[in-house]
Amino acid sequence: MEGAVIAGIGYLAMGLLLLWVGWNHWRYRKEETISILEAAIVKATGEEPLPTTRIDWFLKYLQAILGFILGPIFAFLGIIVILGELEML
After folding, report:
1. Could you say which of 7, 63, 71, 81 would form a disulfide bridge with 18 (CB–CB 3.0 to 4.6 Å)?
2. For the residues 66-85, what does the mean pLDDT come to?
3. What is the dihedral of CA 38, 40, 45, 50, to 10 degrees?
4. How many Cβ atoms from other residues are within 10 Å of residue 44's Cβ?
């Protein structure tokens, strides 16, 4: 029982994390943002960040859409596993 509940909590946490990531990517999709790693490299070298390309914009939209699709699926799966182990289904 304990392992399944822990797995359910993990699925639920992963679903909420993916939903949050999708929301943030969708919210800031029109803004030019850089990752933390790229910001550290730019700061260390003193260079300007490269302009965003079409693939950058495509991947930002893709991450948002995948977060919105996979987030609720994982959260629902986590709830099902937890409720199944607690015999509430």
Report:
1. 71
2. 96
3. 20
4. 8
Which of the four pLDDT bands, split at 50, 70 and 90, describes residue 71?
very high
Helix (H, G, I), strand (E, B) or coil at 10: helix
Amino acid at 9: I
Residues 6 or more apart whose Cβ sits within 8 Å of residue 19: 67, 68, 71, 72, 75
User: Residue 26: what residue type?
Assistant: W
Widest Cα–Cα separation across the chain: 58
Instruction: Give residue 54's identity as a one-letter amino acid code.
Output: R
Give domain limits for the chain. 2-85
Q: What is the pLDDT of residues 22-66, one digit of tens each?
A: 999 899 888 878 888 988 999 999 888 888 889 988 988 999 999
For 70, the enclosing helix (H) or strand (E) is helix 54-85
